[in-house]
Amino acid sequence: xxxxxxxxxxxxxxxxxxxxxxxxxxxxxxxxxxxxxxxxxxxxxxxxxxxxxxxxxxxxxxxxxxxxxxxxxxxxxxxxxxxxxxxxxxxxxxxxxxxxxxxxxxxxxxxxxxxxxxxxxxxxxxxxxxxxxxxxxxxxxxxxxxxxxxxxxxxxxxxxxxxxxxxxxxxxxxxxxxxxxxxxxxxxxxxxxxxxxxxxxxxxxxxxxxxxxxxxxxxxxxxxxxxxxxxxxxxxxxxxxxxxxxxxxxxxxxxxxxxxxxxxxxxxxxxxxxxxxxxxxxxxxxxxxxxxxxxxxxxxxxxxxxxxxxxxxxxxxxxxxxxxxxxxxxxxxxxxxxxxxxxxxxxxxxxxxxxxxxxxxxxxxxxxxxxxxxxxxxxxxxxxxxxxxxxxxxxxxxxxxxxxxxxxxxxxxxxxxxxxxxxxxxxxxxxxxxxxxxxxxxxxxxxxxxxxxxxxxxxxxxxxxxxxxxxxxxxxxxxxxxxxxxxxxxxxxxxxxxxxxxxxxxxxxxxxxxxxxxxxxxxxxxxxxxxxxxxxxxxxxxxxxxxxxxxxx
Length: 553
Fold this sequence. Notes:
This is Acetolactate synthase large subunit. There is one protein chain. The strands form four sheets. A six-stranded parallel beta sheet has the order 3-2-4-5-7-6, sandwiched between helices. The model has no long low-confidence stretch (mean pLDDT 95). Helix 1 crosses helix 2 (37-45), helix 1 runs parallel beside helix 7 (145-157) and helix 3 (58-72) packs across helix 17. The termini are far apart. 38% of the residues lie in helices and 17% in strands. By secondary structure, it is α/β, with parallel strands linked by helices.
């Protein structure tokens, strides 16, 4: 019997790799484990070979796959050995679930012919990973692998995007099999309800003080061009968050993120696109202070399950975000709308005033260094296509205030899950996905403790990254609030002025400690010129806390 030309044959690892390649995978992030050796053999023998990127902790492999999904909008692939290999990747899967990041995690699994006898790392992973994935399955035979892997990748990249998980028993992974080759679809969201789009257009047309909020799914759904068209042609003031940052370029006259408080408190209509109405957005309540009328709220999402179930919405719609936004633009193009010049002027003046106030912090000569001074030196050195990654608490909050990306798809942060330790994995992914761009990892000294060992991975694989640390010798995001609540703090201090740059040098990278604000700029110049993993370890003032309006509850 001959094999049909649209079928895949080989051992299960070869079939799995062929499916992954068909879905656009070029790199496999992993930490060596015998349960998944067939995947490595498949990667080495495929044509072209799939790049094997091995790390020092499985969390880094999984975070690298999650960041790859964010940056490329093609599912990232993490291959993790059985038991602790899989459980070490759970936080990254949870982060991907919260952020809508397309990724596939492949787990090893104890052999089926030994199941129940106490084989090494024998555990059923599915009950552990199912709550934080879109799809989780065990593929029991080699003949199940082609269709099973295709289903996982299809689920991961379809709206609403997220993580998918599959594992294969070790004995089945080594077996030969056959299965159908993938047939890729367009992976576009559903067509939006035209009546719902018309209702939203009517609300926008009547609003005197509208604000548009653009979130991560605008980028993930390839809707960044449609979003910018709507903003510019309708002259709508916009705020961006997550990977929506850069959709309206930094410095654009309609980007009013620096006037966020005035915009959201003064708006009569807030249209939220591609991001949940969670703690970052006041749970969907805007304005209403001092007896005023709260703003009407519209929620637009890429799929029905992402629409808010708790907020009081004036209207909502789900579907392909480009179709929604272009539909709104078409409906608004001929509609009479109020004169919003005064509203725009108010917000632009507020942005200008905030920028003027920021200038003092960005050039601060304080000793110890104020964290803002680091951004005063860093931001002018960032190219328009720089990829900036945040991994930390207070230090990264300052980044959100001062770094306004010029292009979409260039900002990575922990997102609503708030998971520390993702930074090294994201930096690895960014350097591979954007080989010619600056890659800057912003590290809190607390966050660095989760993953700094993976500088070894950067070194071994020749991946230069500029790492900038705000080292305040504390868990700053907890220290201040605990003092506010109790008048004291515990479990919030780290060793003072730890020389993390020496750790980086010991692992084969480079770096230096900076204590004088005047030396930050020259240190950054050396880091960008080094063509190596380079840590600029800046000792900062623990009392210079970020002035936050929410603690996430």
